[in-house]
Amino acid sequence: MKIYHNAKWWIKGRIDPEIIAVGVKDGKIVELFNKLPQGSHRSIDLGGRFVFPGFIDTHTHSFEGGLYSMMIDLSPAQSISDVLELIHEYSRSKGKYIFAWNFDESSIKEKRFPTRQELDKVLQDKNLVLRRIDGHSCIVNSFALKNIRESGKLLDSRDEVLRGYDNDLAVHWFHKSLDQDIIIEAYHTASRIALQGGFTGIHTMIGDADMSITHYELIRDRLSDFAVRYHIYPQSFDIDAALDAGATRVGGCILADGSIGSKTAALSFNYLNSDSSGSLYQTDDFWKAFITRAHQNNLQVGVHCIGDRAIKQINDVYLALERADSRDLRHQIIHCEITPDSLLDEIAESKAATVMQPAFDRLWGGTDGFYASMLGKDKTFEMNRFASLLKRGVKVTGSSDWYITELDIVKSLQSLLIHTNPDERISLKDAVSIYTENAAWLSHDEGRLGKIEKGFIADFSVLESLPSVEISDTKKQVKAIIRDGEMVHDAL
Fold first, then answer.
1. Degrees (nearest 5) of the Cα angle 405, 411, 412?
2. How far is Cα 27 from Cα 110, in angstroms, rounded to an integer?
């Protein structure tokens, strides 16, 4: 038996002062000790740190996040010239596929995307995709545009900045063009970043959000190779492919609508100073047929819904199925950003789970923030309603939507504690549950993950101190990650 000791243990929603050590054998918790046991065992001193059940991020794009982390991060850029210089420097010594990400035109001097002509001046003979921070728009250079069209893919947009279908087409063409070794390396990179961010497990999407599950089976057959515990989703509308691959779920970021930044999230009202209310990407009949068939095949469904009109469109199907054919599948509303009270009540009735991102409020919330500039100040009180959902008994889980925001558990917990709307702030107990017990429940793992309890898998996240809003350097908080009783990340 292995004994982890000299630590403060988070058990049943609090630090339990009675428990001083935990015994682990064959990857499982076999005993909780209130005094150190005698006899022969291996002892691991955790240095007085705080130990939580392994934190789980329930929605990431780990392939993209890992891949992009190996490429060009444009967040430091303050001008178009900075963007072009970063691309030029990276591309001099790299392969034929170049991806630039984390671009936010609102944070640079010119307040616009670079033009294709500007991109061509720095990169003429390699494929380049430059993607906006929210993932819902991009631009490609002429070399990539030519290759995309020659591959048989048709870009309909006359605009250089690609949105909606064309954005997805260009990005997924890029992903599908990569060698297998790069794909696997991207997942290992993502695994390391997840561990450093404090997570033992992450849910991740694999597929083109259309009719292909791309390299789902490649990763499915190698799950034991990765240090982090991946929960994988065939991100596709192809139910047959998901079933053939042995999946128990389907979807992820299959899109009911777009994003607020691209003005494609579907709203029941117009964007501020605009005659647009975004758009629904599919008809009601399409979603009814797709979700119903998945439900009948006992597949859990996850759908990207940001605007209230999109959330209602998807939840209406969940609600009808709950009334007519209730099954414990735990269908997901992913993002769930804009929810008036009436919609909260309907979500509670449908028994859908909401997979939400605390960092969205931290980055964009408040009456002077990005949401307010796009939707109006009054609408900010209907955004990211963690407390209101929990009060209605809705299962809420937490995620980063990484690569969109950081994989950083302490910063995510802080975001829940200091929500810009005081009515939506939650306690540390509830915040931790969102990333542990609720996350385990989402994947039907509540009997083996999410708690420090005898018989559960020994997945632990070890932090320097109890999460609080006073912590400034969150990256230094993660001291160790233990998965299946083994130390897979050690910063003690």
1. 70
2. 54
C-alpha span between 407 and 399 (Å, rounded): 8
What are the Cα distances from residue 176, in Å, to 113, 188, 212, 222, 269?
25, 18, 10, 19, 37
Q: In order of start, what are the domains of the chain with their CATH numbers? A: 1-54+453-492 (2.30.40.10), 64-176 (3.10.310.70), 180-452 (3.20.20.140)
- DSSP assignment string, 210-271: ES--TTHHHHHTTGGGSSSEEEEEEEES-HHHHHHTT-SEEEEEEESS--TTTT-S--SSPP
Say whether 16 sits in a helix, a strand or coil: strand
Hey, what are 328's tokens?
Answer: 């414990």
Q: Which of left, alpha, beta for 251 (phi over 0: left; psi -120 to 50: alpha)?
A: left
Report if pTM > 0.85: yes
What was the pLDDT predicted at 152?
82
Q: What is the rounded average pLDDT for all residues in the chain?
A: 96
Confidence band, pLDDT 50/70/90 cuts, at residue 311:
very high
Residue range 215-233: mean pLDDT, rounded: 98
- Please give the single-letter amino acid code of residue 275: D
Alpha helices in 177-221 (DSSP H): 180-196, 216-220
Q: Rounded mean pLDDT of 50-79?
A: 96
Q: How many CB atoms lie within 10 A of CB 72?
A: 21
Q: State the pLDDT at residue 134.
A: 86
Q: What would the mean pLDDT of 326-355 be, rounded to a whole number?
A: 98
Q: Strands of 249-255's sheet, edge to edge?
A: 249-255, 300-305, 332-335, 353-356, 396-398
* For range 125-152, the mean pLDDT: 92
CB 237 within 8 A of CB 109: no
Q: How far apart are CA 193 and CA 182, in angstroms?
A: 16
